[in-house]
Amino acid sequence: MINDDMHSDDKEERRSYLSDLARLKRIRAKQRIINSNSVLKDHSPSTHKKASIYKIDADGKITGLEEEKALPSQKELDIAIARKDYKEYIKKQNEKKELQLFPIKREEQKEAEDKPKRKQKLKLPKKNKSIKATKNKNQKTTKSNLLISRKSQPIPIVRRNKKTENTAVKKQVGKTARRVKKFFSTVFLLALLLGFSYFAYGFFYKQSGYYTIAIFGVDSRGGETQAGALADVDIICNINRETKEVQLISIYRDTYSMIDASGKYHKLNEAYFLGGHKQAVATLERMLDIKIDDYITFNWKSVVDAVNILGGVDVEISEAEFEYINSFITETVKSTGIGSHQLAYPGKHHLDGVQAVAYARLRLMDTDFNRTERQRKIADLALEKAKQSDFNTLKNLVLSVYPEVSSSISIDDLIPLVRDADKYRLTDSLGFPFDNDTKDIGKLNYVIPVTLESNVRKLHELLYKDSGYRPSRELIDISNYIVEKSGFGTKSSVSKEEATSSQAN
User: Fold this and answer.
1) Taking the CA atoms of the chain, what radius of gyration do you get in angstroms?
2) From CA 161, how far away is CA 168, in angstroms rounded?
3) Per-residue pLDDT tens digits for 345-380
4) Please, are residues 231 and 280 in contact by the beta-carbon 8 Å criterion?
């Protein structure tokens, strides 16, 4: 139906289109009938010849003539169409020169059957125009174009092409070789993967010895974890791979330390400010006479996220801490961009991530020793919450926090540790130096180890159960310099020969 709202030109164009479409349908229907008639005339029995004649009236309808006889059965029609398709198939094969056909008349086939069977030599035509049948020397040779009889199917004879067969065999062999190669490559990769997995498993779970990590917490308003930020948190995390015991040793940030190889002395956190994690790690290795395997640096935002994912921690807030904590909560909200609320009273509180970080940063009401103790308390509580959490929670923690930190530990190494978090237990959480005092050197107030050598001896016995530890020559020189500069303690009595030999060992 044509829409009455259409423009007259559009109506006329649509009528023309519909008229052409109807005429096209009639032409296509007529062509289908003509093709079917052609097939039936060529292949149907003579009794059905008239039955294949139809007429098309003016309206395009197809009807049979009144004098027509019964139409051929569907089986006969299928046979006729199949024969036509077979002739087309043979034609295509001849064009590709892959198949040479030698059709034989029914009469010649019968004559050949009456004669004794002999081997006949057959020659293929060059351009498939004529067929030459060759007989033995005692028989005549005839040349003729042989036609395919309607009642007999042609007998195909395929000429063997040795070159083509050899190529096909080579291709098949090559394909088989590639399959075998691919199979062994897959097996090799699987074996390599299994070997790597076993190595990784052995590294974290079966290997004996200790795994030492340096943990830095930087006071960065913009979230940076590189040089230019002061490391207010300096922790040595020591893991016994065999017993799964974890020890946390907090190094006081104000400890008087040699912060670079040139012999410059300053507060410990200055090392990270000047040279990032590389200089901070080198300073700790030199100061503690240990080998640090990996490091991880976090900002306050990453700690906030971690505590929130773990569900918060329960902390007792003293009256002195309460006087300052709300101002630190406000500052932490501004620096991290994460919301929280202030506390209304001192006492027991369930702290969220922002409140926990504010608690760990408190320093105005007491000393750096107390602040370090608060930092370790938050770390201990977070570790206990992690041990109680399921694997999905811990995995979410790692995936959320890892992009915010700087670390030499890959996320693939963290996942196995997280999976077995409940197997690890915290045995020690202490501050270093164990024996210390404070003194102003220049314009700054420092934490002085008394002495560095004796403190390091205790540290090695605590961490590595090494009661026979002998310090290196470099450590003795640093310890003697601090004694001389501060006036606390006495210089080491270890000779240079003993120190040198112990360092060599």
Assistant:
1) 48
2) 11
3) 999 999 999 999 999 989 888 887 888 889 889 988
4) yes
Under 8 Å between Cβ of 417 and 387: no
Q: Which two tokens stand for residue 289?
A: 């006479």
Owner of token pair 């090392």: 271
Q: Which amino acid is at 232?
A: D
Report the alpha-carbon distance of residue 392 to residue 359 in Å, rounded. Answer: 28
Residue 105 in tokens: 């008349």
Q: What span, in angstroms and rounded, lies between the C-alpha atoms of 311 and 424?
A: 20
CA 106 from chain center: how many Å? Answer: 70
Residues in the chain: 505
Residue pLDDT, tens place only, 106-153:
555 555 555 555 555 555 555 444 444 444 444 444 444 444 444 444
> Is the distance from CB of 428 to CB of 463 less than 8 angstroms?
no
| d(C-alpha 38, C-alpha 395), whole Å | 75
Query: Which contiguous run of DSSP H or E holds residue 392?
Result: helix 391-401
In this structure, are residues 414 and 396 in contact, taking their beta carbons and an 8 Å threshold?
Answer: no
Nearest to 301 by CA among 404, 201, 396: 404
| 231 contact partners, CB below 8 Å, separation of at least 6 | 216, 217, 218, 219, 253, 268, 269, 271, 272, 273, 280, 297
Helical axes 391-401 vs 411-419, angle rounded to 10°: 160
Cα 231 to Cα 89, 163, 174, 265: the distances in Å are 84, 79, 64, 16
| pLDDT for 27 | 81
Q: What letter does residue 159 receive in the DSSP assignment?
A: P
Q: Characterise 480 by phi-psi region: left (phi > 0), alpha (psi -120 to 50), beta (else).
A: alpha
What pLDDT digit, counting tens, does each position of 276-286 carry? 999 999 999 99
**CB neighbours of 453 closer than 8 A, spacing ≥ 6?**
471, 475, 476, 479, 492, 494
**What stretch of H or E contains 258?**
strand 256-258
Locate the domains of the chain by residue range.
Answer: 8-92, 101-159
DSSP 357-385: HHHHH--SSS-HHHHHHHHHHHHHHHHHH
Contact 48, 72 (CB under 8 A): yes
Under 8 Å between Cβ of 431 and 372: yes
Q: Which residues contact 379 (CB under 8 A, 6 or more apart)?
A: 235, 248, 429
Q: For the residues 428-432, what does the mean pLDDT come to?
A: 90
Give the C-alpha distances (Å, rounded to integers) separating 357 from 299, 306, 377: 10, 11, 11
Cα–chain-centroid distance for residue 234?
Answer: 34
What amino acid is encoded at 99 in this protein? L
